[in-house]
Amino acid sequence: MQLKTVWWFFYLEAKNRKEIKMSKKKTAQLLESLNERIDKVQSSSEFKKVLKFFSKFHNYSYQNSMLILMQKPEASFVAGYRQWQKRFNRHVKKGEKGIAILAPFTYKKEVKKSNLDFNFDAEETEEVKKTYFNTVYVFDISQTEGEPVPELDMELENSNKELINLLLDYADSQKIEVSFRPLPDSTDGYSRGGEVVINEKANETEQASILVHELAHEHLHFNNESNSLNLSKEIIEMEAEAVAFVVMDYFDIESKSDKYLALYKESYDLMESFKRINDVSSSILDHLLVNEEKEDSKKDSEEN
Question: The domain containing residue 111 runs over which residues?
Fold first, then answer.
């Protein structure tokens, strides 16, 4: 009896290892496919029109990105008051409050060389560059109006209305608060460490995709370990949306991840984040599948 039990234990262990291995292989195939689809989108004429518009936006430092997130977490594309007028033929709406960031300014100053090195004469001077930071204000695209903004079709068919409830249960298990609010058309949702906000105007399938993306941010980018990595905006968005792509694919939902990531991808290869993406997507899927089985069993018992 004991021998049979031991044999069965090792059989299950081997089976589980095989399933995990197959899961990783599937994830790798999906990431390779996503990379190819992003490249295809980036070479399309539709995307080139959009890129021409968004390439005019400044790439902000990690510190300023955090300042923008803290003040207006739903912000997507920001620019200065006059930049909106000159570059985009749009103007800031009356009464809108600016987002404070820090801008570096340099100036030249004559200093005594003796202050820099005791070997120099006390009267000798040298011109040095000094840098200081001043507060300036920028505005999100949702705070402006004017010339129409080129857009990519990002809408999803509402083919799975139940998935959002499973994801809400997962978020609750992770102690992540989720709320639904009206957001600007340019914003699907945002997260800020323990809290996720989803655009209530999106359909249930779109909300599910948005929530997976934001949950990935919560796991990958809102913890002490990841914050210390000082990741670029390109990597942060590619990792989060890749997780959404993997999870949505499992439920046979055709997402628009390739179009979304085409806006961010420069040179980063998703496979460099394979382990991080696979770990988070697996964690989410494991929970969803267990709960889905419970729901199915509950329905079966009620019908019988």
Answer: 64-146
